[in-house]
Structure formats: C-alpha cells, structure tokens
Design goal:
single chain; 3-stranded antiparallel β-sheet; Alpha-Beta Plaits; 4-stranded antiparallel β-sheet; 3 domains; 13 helices; alpha+beta; Malonyl-Coenzyme A Acyl Carrier Protein, domain 2; 328 residues
Length: 328
C-alpha cells in the first residue's frame, strides 16, 4: 500500500531545528518522498504540504526529514527536496505536488542497476562546519583528509581543519575550492572503505578535479596542485563578475539575455528548468531584479566572479604556465 499521508511526529527534543548544527552551522537538509507512480508521488507531496500547513506547532524540518527517510516505505518513483530553511523546503514540496521543476528538487527512479556513480559538484555546496563530525567519527575520512592537507601544503598557508569552521576563509575562492576538493576526495575514500564499488564518476566545474583523482586520472599531488593553483588564478577575476540561478528553461533564458548580449551568457544547465547565468556583475544584478519583479524566483549565486564565461579567458596563460607538466 501507499505510504501514510504524513510523517509521524518525532519525539520531543529528538532532532535539532533544520539548518542548525553545533556551533551555529547551517547545512542543507533533504526531504525524501516516493510513490508507486508519478501521480502517486505528486499526491504524497500534496498530502505532506497539507499536513505542514495544518500542523499545530512550529515546523521542525530536521525531524520531518528524518521521519520521511526512516519511517516511510520507499517506492519506485522518488524525489528529494533539498533546502537550508523551511521556506525552500516547502517551496520544493509545493513544486513537486504541482509537477514543476525548481532548484533543490530532484526526481528519479529507485530501480538500481547494481552500478554506482559518484557525482562531484562545483563550488556552492559548502557550509561552515561541514565534515567536522566525520573527522572525529571516521578514521578513513580523517586519514584521507590528512593526506589531502599534506598534498596542498606547498601551495596554501592555511589548514583544512581551520578552514572547515571559518566563514571568513570559506568566503575566499582560493580556500573554498581546495577545501571542497579535499572533502569530496575523502568522502569517496570513505564510501569505498564501506564496500561501495565505484563504477564511474561525474564532475561539474571544479568538482572535475576531485572526480579525476578518484578515477585515477590524476594523482593526489597533481590534483592538489590543479585545484590550488587554479583557484588562486581565479582570484584575479574577483569583483568583476557574478552568477545567477534562474528557474526557467535554457531556451527562454537565452532569449531573456538579449538586452545584455556580450555581457551575460548561459554558464550551466542544471535541469530542465534550472539555468545558471554568468557575466558582468551589474548585468547579473539587473537580470535578477527584472526577473524577480516578474515573479520569477531568480537569485544571485554567492560568488564575485563570472565562472564558465568569457571572463575566465583572462587567466588562460597563467593556468597553462602553472599547470605545465601535469599529465593524466
């Protein structure tokens, strides 16, 4: 039978408020839903939305997420809503119920082929305090992080442990990208030690460096050199550009960029209705303001340079020099 309409109420005090970890860290939280069919999945989302709206007390997203993951039957059609606060989680559930696509909502099927693929994301997946618990709980993870730190040491003057808990350091592109590389490489090692056989890897943006290391295309030392020197070179672009996430199909976004031809371009297509735009900072701001004024939930990405745009041509020669001699 289909899962019950709403997750069970958690025991009082059993879970923290969503997004709040020890030390005030804010982290992304997943809500998992499933159904036998696509319509059943949408119905589940609608019932959850109604339950959340009618709740007698304040919403506790972390407890809700735990109940959805651990007390519900997992059917074939599945969706995950990811957010750092109540509004984004609720918006994702509403979009699922209505059959729309929004950032933070992923649909798929739970039928396994028996093969595993690790996906390595780009910048933006970080939060202050990430990996802190794993460092204390997983010897494999901590050991690999130590190896990554030693590999990075010729190129950086900060420590991984310090950077993981520092909002100031993680705001720097020359810090956050090597930190994410180390965390992703170490997570992959931890999964392997738990028996996960990795059949393939996929990397996006700077996540490609970690993917190449895990796949054996780059040594750990070469991966550290690539990510450290690349992120340092990107620093010269800081302050000139920006990026934005636009919840519209790429074709429509390209049409909307016409007033800023040569100044804005499509940087990435993250989904059928999730497009990333990159370019001059003032043009990004103008585009976001225009879209928001029309009711489109566009938002600026927290970077001060225009990755995946013509801006990066300015560092081409520097990178060729810095990375000379590295071969897969």
């Amino acid at each position: 039978p289909e899962a019950p309409e709403a997750p069970e109420a958690p025991a009082e005090g059993a879970e923290p408020v969503a997004g709040a970890a020890a030390g005030g860290a804010v982290y992304p939280l997943p809500w998992v839903l499933s159904g036998r069919t696509e319509q059943a999945l949408r119905d589940q989302a609608a019932r959850l939305l109604a339950h959340l709206s009618a709740g007698p007390g304040p919403l506790r997203p972390a407890a809700t997420g735990r109940a959805l993951a651990l007390t519900r039957t997992a059917f074939e059609r599945r969706a995950v809503v990811v957010g750092t606060d109540q509004d984004r989680l609720t918006d994702g559930v509403k979009a699922l119920a209505e059959g729309r696509s929004v950032p933070g909502l992923v649909r798929g099927e739970g039928v396994s082929s028996g093969r595993s693929v690790l996906v390595f994301p780009g910048q933006g997946s970080q939060w202050v305090g990430m990996a802190a618990e794993l460092l204390g709980e997983s010897e494999v993870f901590a050991g690999r992080m130590g190896e990554c730190e030693r590999a990075l040491s010729p190129y950086v003057d900060w420590s991984l442990t310090e950077a993981l808990g520092s909002e100031r350091l993680l705001a720097r592109v020359d810090v956050v990208q090597p930190v994410l590389w180390a965390v992703m490489v170490s997570l992959a090692e931890m999964w392997r030690s738990s028996g996960v056989a990795v059949d393939g890897v996929v990397g996006h943006s700077q996540g490609e460096v970690a993917a190449a290391c895990v796949a054996g295309g780059l040594s750990l030392d070469d991966g550290a050199r690539v990510v450290a020197l690349r992120s340092r070179a990107v620093g010269v672009l800081a302050g000139r550009g920006g990026m934005a996430s636009v919840p519209l199909p790429v074709g429509e976004v390209r049409e909307r960029l016409a007033p800023w031809a040569g100044r804005l371009s499509v940087a990435a297509v993250n989904g059928p209705s999730v497009t990333v735009v990159s370019g001059d900072a003032d043009a990004v701001t103008a585009l976001v303001d225009e879209l928001v004024g029309e009711g489109v939930r566009a938002r600026s990405v927290e970077v001060d340079y225009a990755s995946h745009s013509s801006h990066v041509e300015a560092i081409r020669e520097q990178l060729l020099s810095d990375l000379e001699g590295i071969t897969p």
